[in-house]
């Protein structure tokens, strides 16, 4: 968006998505140090930010490539990295056609959990004249996608290894069911090791030792090194962070780099302040914070967005002396940054409170 460089927040039409670049860089440096220290590859999931510019920053900080979930994300990220992991079952002719149309230089790897998905991918790759890496998706407790037994993993890996136009590379899993605070994840780590260990042991016994063991999430990010056999992690949220991440100790509140700028539009109801950021700007996702709500103010985390409708956010000020005026600006950290970013066409980039750039959320849609 032209004309917004070096602008003040007051120049923005609200609600507006903001990204604090200083905090982003701190977050990237932290995960880069962690992965280097523990010998893990870092392949961040771009579903969080959906912008080529942030992927470029992640690559500069040490990421080996990008993880995506939609063909549109793959198209956008392929412009900045030649190494793409499509972490979603590649089912459907239209989805496969878009993947096969990625630039020839793209090293494409796809996760799947069925012979049906493998057959479709193989046919599409053969017709396109390209080779695609494949990973067996494992279910380690999420109960969403993934084979559930080591025998199933072996059978699918064998089929992958024997299929033309694809190359079996390893396994992938997502511990998205683990959302406990960091210090309460001991049992979850033990469970991940037990379940993953059973899969890896059986694969190795059958001479199918995986080159890639891809896992990780932002809630478990800082304990990833405790999962034996893991070779790469795919955190997404940690580049920007959100209220949920702060609530479970995956980041500090000051690590939250994303917020939604909003304007106070009404103070008519006692104990309540209404802002112009509702569910269409923040997303109406339940959070992990015990206080509930749909977000909290960046500089006043005790002020909760108690409720939202489409265009209105209701701040609860009943237990505070803070009383903003109509027209004042506030910044809201949403519960879930991925869902919130997807509602905005652009991210306004801040340095020291000043808008220095604007990035298109180019990978929205499918």
TrEMBL record:
Source organism, top-level taxon: Bacteria
Gene3D superfamilies recorded: Alanine racemase (3.20.20.10), D-serine dehydratase-like domain (2.40.37.20)
Keywords: Lyase
Domain D-serine dehydratase-like: 257-351
Pfam families: Ala_racemase_N (PF01168), D-ser_dehydrat (PF14031)
PANTHER family: D-SERINE DEHYDRATASE, ZGC:162816-RELATED
Family statement: Belongs to the DSD1 family.
Descriptive protein name: Alanine racemase
Record organism: Myxococcus landrumensis
């Amino acid at each position: 968006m032209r004309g917004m460089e070096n602008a003040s927040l007051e120049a923005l039409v609200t609600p507006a998505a903001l990204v604090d670049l200083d905090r982003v860089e701190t977050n990237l440096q932290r995960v880069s140090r962690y992965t280097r220290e523990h010998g893990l590859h870092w392949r961040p999931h771009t579903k969080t930010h959906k912008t080529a510019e942030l992927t470029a920053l992640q690559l500069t900080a040490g990421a080996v490539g990008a993880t995506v979930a939609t063909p549109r994300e793959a198209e956008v990220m392929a412009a900045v990295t030649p190494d793409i992991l499509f972490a979603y079952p590649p089912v459907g002719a239209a989805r496969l056609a878009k993947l096969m149309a990625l630039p020839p230089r793209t090293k494409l790897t796809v996760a799947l959990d069925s012979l049906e998905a493998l057959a479709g991918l193989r046919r599409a790759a053969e017709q396109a004249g390209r080779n695609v890496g494949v990973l067996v998706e494992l279910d380690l407790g999420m109960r969403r996608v993934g084979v559930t037994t080591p025998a199933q993993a072996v059978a699918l890996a064998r089929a992958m290894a024997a299929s033309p136009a694809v190359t079996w590379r390893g396994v992938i899993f997502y511990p998205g069911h683990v959302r406990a605070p960091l210090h309460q994840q001991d049992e979850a780590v033990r469970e991940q090791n037990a379940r993953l260990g059973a899969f890896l042991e059986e694969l190795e016994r059958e001479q199918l030792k995986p080159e890639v063991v891809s896992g990780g999430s932002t809630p478990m990010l800082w304990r990833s090194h405790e999962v034996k056999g893991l070779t790469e992690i795919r955190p997404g949220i940690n580049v920007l962070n959100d209220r949920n991440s702060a609530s479970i100790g995956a980041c500090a509140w000051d690590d939250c780099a994303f917020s939604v700028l909003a304007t106070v539009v009404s103070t008519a109801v006692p104990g309540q302040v209404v802002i112009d950021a509702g569910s269409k700007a923040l997303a109406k996702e339940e959070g992990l914070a015990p206080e509930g709500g749909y977000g909290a103010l960046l500089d006043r985390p005790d002020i909760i967005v108690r409720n939202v409708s489409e265009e209105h956010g209701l701040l609860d000020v009943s237990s505070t002396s803070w009383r903003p005026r109509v027209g004042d600006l506030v910044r809201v950290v949403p519960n879930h940054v991925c869902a919130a970013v997807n509602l905005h066409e652009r991210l306004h980039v801040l340095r020291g409170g000043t808008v220095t750039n604007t990035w298109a959320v180019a990978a929205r849609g499918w």
